[in-house]
Amino acid sequence: MGASHTRTEPNEFQDLMDKTGFSVEQIKNLRKRFLQLSGNEETISRENLDSIPALANNPLKKEIINAIFDKRNQHESEVGSFQEIGFEQFLMVMSHFRPPTLKTTPEEKEALRKEKLRFLFNMHDTDNDGTITLDEYRKVVEDLLSKSGAIEPATAKGIADAAMLEVASTNVPHMAPDEFYEGITFEHFEQILKGLEMETRMHIRFLDVGTATMRCGRSTS
Amino acid sequence: MPSGTGSLHPAGTGRRLPERGLLLLVVLVLLEGSVLPLGAAGSPDVTPPEHGGGHKASDPGHNFTKKAFPVLSLDYHHIQLPFEIALWVLLASLMKLGFHLIPRLSSIVPESCLLIVVGLLVGGLIKLAGEEVPPLLDSKLFFLILLPPIILDAGYFLPIRPFMENLGTILMFAVVGTLWNAFFIGGLLYGVCQIQPEHSSLHAIELLPCLLFGSIISAVDPVAVLAVFEEIHINELLHILVFGESLLNDAVTVVLYHLFEEYTAAGTVTVVDCILGMISFLVVALGGVLVGAIYGFLAALTSRFTSHVRVIEPLFVFVYSYMAYLSAEMFHLSGIMALIACGAVMRPYMEANISHKSHTTIKYFLKMWSSVSETLIFIFLGVATVDGPHYWNWTFVTVTVVLCLVARVIGVVGLTFIINKFRIVKLTTKDQFIIAYGGLRGAIAFSLGFLLDSELFPMRKMFLTAIITVIFFTVFVQGMTIKPLVELLAVKKKQEAKRTINEEIHTQFLDHLLTGIEDICGHYGHHHWKDKLNRFNKKYVKKFLIAGERSKEPQLIAFYHKMEMKQAIELVESGGGVKMPAAVPSTVSMQNIQPKKPPAPKTGDRAMPALPKGREEEIRKILRSNLQRTRQRLRSYNRHTLVIDPFEDGLSDLLIKKHKMIELEKKIKQMNNYLTVPAAPPDSPTMCRARLASGRNTDFTPAQQQKGNRAGADPQAYSMKPESGSVPSIQVDLASPQSPDSVNVMDEFRRAKREEEDEEQGLMMKPPHGQSGPSKTGEPQKMTRCLSDPGPSADEEEDEPFLP
């Protein structure tokens, strides 16, 4: 706990800024929020997030919390999930939601897109076998509809099935009747969400986003 | 006249079809030219013809006993006005038709330009005939009749999501940008006028008229923007930015116009006036939105109760929005904003309440009206140009055009610089260029100019000339070059692909995810408030405005139903499921993605070729039960009750079913291979007969006789000749739950195919095909039923043999 004071120094953030691309102010803001959530602890636990009142109505609450504690979202090749995460891990997860800037090159944009899609894919692919199976997809749709009143389970199932069928038919147009489409691979996932322009949509406005984040990081260094 | 034909001809040389189209046009132009002179004499005033007509009518009354009863009499004045209106509309539509017959021409020149040219020609003809040109683009006609359909079309189909996401930017361009343009153009024009020599007419122009002129000329015109942008297929962001600006700047234009008009009359401006002007702007804009929202809300509420009188559903959309527009205009509020708000507010609730057919009707009516209006506006613009009193002043006109361009560029670049500080998705230089270049002026400016009082504004003629020049410049030069420029700059285009269900799922997923992440970050931003609003909407508003169960239906499910519906229709139209619609050109079926396949049906399927007889029996049984069920649900058709729409009844698992059908189709093909006879196409005459007789391979006449007791069993499956189109409709009248329209459409499709196939193998059909026939009837049969009235409980059992 004493360490938290030394961590708040700007040059301590330098490392985090390089890693995540956030600006000092954004990191400070997130740090404040992090401490608020954890009750001034160094780490944050599932219970801490569970108790956020605004999340209570979110149909994807469980998925979101899982994603935050997912080791796959730490830009490292680890798998599994944390029980508790520190501020750095928290920032890493949040960095998936950074918007592209005017200076982002097309290649960077493509990478950003892949990264964002990977985040979504990981949210669906709960068992980390590289494919989203029909059961996993059904679960997602069910959760998605869970807060919209009484929905017959068959409807959710139907939607998931239709969606799966669509993926299968766009990616593997010709299948023999006895072939089996195991699930959505990341490539297929990328393919079907091509139209969504993830790189420009999957972001939130972190406070103080006005100063383009990457540039800010460099100018202070 | 020869000049008209001469200028139209080169484009279509050497082509039959275009030439025929052109011939039509020329004939029409001739007709127009010859009829209008007749009518033009009386057209400025409506009363004389009526008077004359009355006079004529009273004459025979006096001489009643003496004169013979006139067998044929000519009374043109009696019908003059509606006849001329109809003629103009016909001319407009035929012109539109004509241009699209010449693909080469319409790919180079935007339609709007061509229409203006046509207008110029027609106007020229009228002038040549020495007649008075009717005041076609008169402000009343324009603002009360021609403009609303276009705006309603735009408002009702406004892509809300991108619009709301970019609302800040749009408002910035619409309000600040238009203000900047108005004052920059007005101010500099005044400056230019002042440096002219003393004796010139320009020197006498004061500042206020200049500003008024600036405010008229600075507004980007939605009609022109729509006409051009629809052809260049630019990406959604740019489209909504330019188009949104053109819609929302209406409030600014209205206020500035009235403000300056008022001040010009009064002569002085005080600070208080400026403040009042600003307040007036807020009132005009927000008042317009409020009026529109109220009417939209009322329309939504009304549509909640229309389920018994489906035929008038579409009318509510039109009438309520028109009332909103008129009410707003009554208070000099922004009618355009009211229409947009009305359309946008009512649409989600309307769509949930009304039937699928009504929705299609609304769509087509709006598109039809708006495109006719648009065509007329451009033609009238041309006519008015020829007609209008002109005063050409080189300095004034050139300076205006240059200032318009400069002001637009500076405005866009300057505003983007500020906006980009707040935007997450920044506007690139290319985007800025297109936004600046897309700032087309149009008929609204002209109509406003036309509205000016010539006593108050002695330079009205010059203003009108300048306005027309700017319109022509933007529509012709910018409108024609923007397409090549878009391609040259490789600006991102709109994706043509339809929305897939995966995209829809992930759009929703993303919404919730981002809201969740925002909540975790403790930052209540855009997504947070949107989520709150959505929840409020779902909890209270929807319940109040949407009838029945559908109020609780989440967006995703609604989307899913819509998609199913579309595919089901495509499937039926494509003829029963063998040929899949292009949307899903694959052989992948549910079987391929089903994780665990229960063995029973599978082995059954596999064994099918070996025992086709038993299988066939089974299928036949299912079909019979189907028929019975269908018949139970039959209802009589009457003019005021449209058929129960499948869309409302919820096609919960139609898509899956459809795939099952395809699968079945495949299996039948396999089976046919084993039977060693060529597979009969499902639409062949044999199949039809088989379908009709449901198993018994009867021939034509018995089938017809049987119709009595089998009435409505399969109305769409039976028609041999195009002339027999009435047969299915008669059946429908008896019992079918489908409307004659839909049946006829399906028949059209089937008939076309059947005739082809008739030629190929009409006589080769032998009884053996009958064996596979009944099994095939399953597909269309089932489709018909699903389309008309799906019963979930019934479907479940019937589907079991094929796939659980």
Automatic annotation (TrEMBL), chain A:
The keyword Cytoplasm applies. GO terms for biological process: cell differentiation. Residues 112-147 form the EF-hand domain. It is found in: Cell projection, Lamellipodium; Cell projection, Ruffle membrane; Cytoplasm; Membrane. Keywords: Calcium, Cell membrane, Cell projection, Cytoplasm, Differentiation, Lipoprotein, Membrane, Metal-binding, Myristate, Nucleus, Protein kinase inhibitor. The keyword Cytoplasm applies. Gene3D superfamilies: EF-hand. It holds the Pfam family EF-hand_6. It is a lipid-anchor. One of its GO terms (cellular component) is nucleus. GO terms for molecular function: calcium ion binding; protein kinase inhibitor activity. It comes from the Eukaryota. Belongs to the calcineurin regulatory subunit family. CHP subfamily. PANTHER family: CALCINEURIN B HOMOLOGOUS PROTEIN 3 (PTHR46823). This is Calcineurin B homologous protein 3.
